[in-house]
Amino acid sequence: MLALVRPLVVVMLSGASASAVAGPTDPFAPSLVLDANHIAAALTFEANLAPAQVASPASIAPDLWYGVTSELTLGVIHSDASIDRVPVFFEPGGSICVRLETVSCPRHYHGSGIDGLYQIVRGELDVAVHARLLLRDIDPIKPAITGGATLRWMNHWSSIVVDPYIQLGLLHLSAGNRAELWLPITIAFAPAALVSLELHTGYDSDIAVWNDGYHVPVLVRTRVRVTEHLDVGVAAGFASLIGTQNIPRERMMAFDLAWRN
């Protein structure tokens, strides 16, 4: 069975303001958006650990968010995590490939995006309008837009984040840039002051085949606060555990480090 496991390692180094974390929609962040003039940044490194394919491919994906106002946060994004996605087949292939591979990293640069959140409700239930402009690939060029909303219910020890959106391709639809429906869900618990446990799941599918072409990812992640500025995390799961397109043999493990000032 171990021969069927295709793991990757993800190391995330992130810096943020005192009231923010690695990404503005963290399950336990003070709000869905950053405070005005505050910054959150992340750098994700992915490397294949499959037998005979160690570090082939390898890639990095930087993300940066800025609080324009106390309601509006804008970001420049590259990682799968920034669009609430688990990498398909868990193949490393972030936006900037440092070691190429024919399928998932055929060239050094894949694309990027602009991320925007505008918070309209604050309280036990937080709500933000969420939109993105994505460049999904450059050969052929695959621009797309997304529109949806991020909702988070939270108390002092748990949270549920739902970030549904529709993605619409603008060019080269027949080359895989079709309309898609995404419903990411994150359920998080804080059993102790310095520990969080997260379940990442949801639903995604091309809209044209929504009833028989969908995927349900399942990923479990835990984070431990090592110091005031450093978090250590580990995750394991499946890109498509449930559904007509399930791929249970494609499994992964991920490790991450998160830093904030």
3D structure, described in words:
This protein has strands spanning about 10-15, 40-50, 60-65, 70-75, 95-100, 110-120, 125-140, 140-155, 160, 165-170, 180-190, 195-205, 215-225, 230-240, 250-260. With about 260 residues, it is an all-beta fold. The chain has a 15-stranded antiparallel β-sheet that branches. The protein starts with 7 loop residues before the first strand and ends with a strand. The chain has one domain (about 1-260): Porin. The protein has no helices and 15 strands.
Write the layout of secondary structure elements.
Layout lengths: L7 E9 L22 E10 L9 E10 L4 E6 L18 E4 L12 E10 L3 E14 L2 E14 L3 E5 L2 E5 L10 E13 L2 E12 L9 E10 L4 E13 L8 E9 L2
Helix count, DSSP H or I runs of 4 or more residues: 0
- Top CATH class: Mainly Beta
Summarize model confidence as the mean pLDDT: 78
Count the E strands. Answer: 15
Give the termini distance in whole angstroms: 42 Å
Q: Main β-sheet: number of strands, strand sense, barrel status?
A: 15 strands, antiparallel
Quick one: overall form? globular
Percent strand equals over 45%
User: How many domains would you count in the coordinates?
Assistant: 1
Whole-number radius of gyration?
Answer: 18 Å
Order of helices and strands: EEEEEEEEEEEEEEE
Unreliably modeled segments: 1-22, 88-92
Instruction: Based on the coordinates given, report the CATH architecture.
Output: Beta Barrel
Structural class: mainly beta
- What name is given to the CATH topology? Porin
Oligomer: single chain
**Helicity level:** under 10%
